[in-house]
């Protein structure tokens, strides 16, 4: 059984003159484990729809481009090394992983 754990940040802007909530902004949450990774990289997110992810090697070559549906990426065929993972999600920054 897999459990996904995450957080959501909620920002409220309150206008005291008109006594109303002016802006409600939900932030995307994204995390991953383990790092270093051996075979599978697991993703944690509050994003419900599928999203794309790209993985680049240290020379900037795109190694993997994949639509993420089940929140995991099989990295078994990658060589040992450092890779940059770019989630194609608004406001989510690229991150590095170490493949062992």
Automatic annotation (TrEMBL):
Residue ranges annotated for the Secretion system C-terminal sorting domain, each copy included: 33-91
Listed Pfam families: Por_Secre_tail (PF18962)
Keyword set, alphabetical order: Signal
Stored InterPro entries: Secre_tail
Highest taxon, organism lineage: Bacteria
NCBIfam families: Por_Secre_tail
Protein name: T9SS type A sorting domain-containing protein
Organism: Flavobacterium ponti
